[in-house]
Amino acid sequence: MEKVAFILKTTAHPTRIAIVQLLSGQESLSVTDISEKLSVEQSLLSHHLTGMKLKGILSSTRDGKNIFYSLKMREVVDVIQCLASCTFL
Questions:
Q1: To 10 degrees, the CA torsion angle through 58, 59, 64, 66?
Q2: Interaxial angle between packed helices 75-84 and 14-24, expressed in degrees from 0 to 180 and rounded to the nearest 10
Q3: Cα atoms in the Cβ-side hemisphere of radius 13 Å centred on 87
Q4: Class for domain 1-83, per CATH?
Q5: Could you give the CA distance from residue 76 to residue 88 in angstroms, rounded to a whole number?
Q6: Counting Cβ atoms within 10 Å, is residue 59 exposed (0-12), middle (13-18) or buried (19+)?
Q7: Domain locations in the chain?
């Protein structure tokens, strides 16, 4: 239950949930790609991505000037999908 609580606390923002959902279907995406697909300003997005990376939810790699993010903790997708399937929401 502690792991579930950690996941919920770390992803408790609509933008963070959208990032997880977007990355769940991709191997990795650049900050620019994520920003465009979610229509979120890059500075705000970077704040969310950095926080999720520091908590171990995401990992990143650098390729020149681009930073690519991917899901490190795949269990996050299961928790979000489980909550999304609740009938009371």
A1: -10
A2: 120
A3: 0
A4: mainly alpha
A5: 20
A6: middle
A7: 1-83
Instruction: Calculate the alpha carbon distances from 2 to 7, 21, 72, 77 in Å.
Output: 9, 22, 18, 16
CB neighbour class for 20 (10 Å; exposed up to 12, middle 13-18, buried from 19)? buried
CB-CB neighbours of 40 under 10 Å: 17
Residue 85 neighbours by CB distance under 10 Å: 8
The model's pLDDT over 21-46, given as tens digits with 9 standing for 90+, comes to 999 999 999 999 999 999 999 999 99
Amino acid at 56: G
Entry pTM = 0.90
